[in-house]
Specification:
With 136 residues, the chain is α/β, with parallel strands linked by helices. It has helices at residues 19-31, 42-51, 68-79, 94-102, 115-135, and strands at 11-15, 35-39, 56-60, 84-89, 107-110. Strands 2-1-3-4-5 form a 5-stranded parallel beta sheet, sandwiched between helices. Strand 3, helix 3 and strand 4 (84-89) form a beta-alpha-beta unit. Helix 2 runs parallel beside helix 3. The longest helix is centred in the last third of the chain and has 21 residues, at 115-135. It is globular, with a radius of gyration of 14 Å.
Length: 136
């Protein structure tokens, strides 16, 4: 499956400290034509976002250096509702999911997640980002 047409203009940052998972997902997404970069820590993500414009962040909840929810809160402090943040977690804890959504996450998915489903969720989040930007 190729990248949906809308996603060809979407810039994505993947934040996950599991090197094997991150590298595999980056390869699979790039193979489909997705413009995606990856970093291994919360601090690296915040530094990246301070320098680069990103439309969607895919954020692991358990990072080695920071809790993903803290990264999410920092992203929201810096940029309001932009970019969209999709939480991708290996743990199905309802309280963590609810906390992430209250902190401003657009979506919450469990690992492993089929790439096609992830692409659909990214597309939905990107559409919301574009609608917000058009309204401003």
């Amino acid at each position: 499956m190729d990248c949906p047409e809308l996603l060809k203009s979407c810039r994505i940052l993947l934040v996950d400290d599991e090197d094997g998972f991150r590298d595999a997902l980056l390869r699979r997404m790039r193979k489909r034509g997705v413009a995606i970069e990856g970093v291994a820590s919360g601090r690296a993500a915040l530094e990246w976002l301070a320098r680069e414009t990103v439309d969607v962040v895919i954020l692991d909840i358990q990072l080695g250096d920071m809790d993903g929810r803290d990264v999410l809160r920092e992203i929201r402090k810096a940029g309001g509702e932009d970019p969209a943040v999709i939480i991708l977690s290996g743990h199905a804890y309802t309280d963590i999911a609810l906390d992430a959504m209250r902190a401003g996450a657009s979506d919450y998915l469990l690992k492993p997640c089929p790439v096609e489903e992830l692409l659909e969720r990214i597309e939905t989040a990107f559409e919301q980002v574009l609608e917000r930007r058009a309204a401003q």
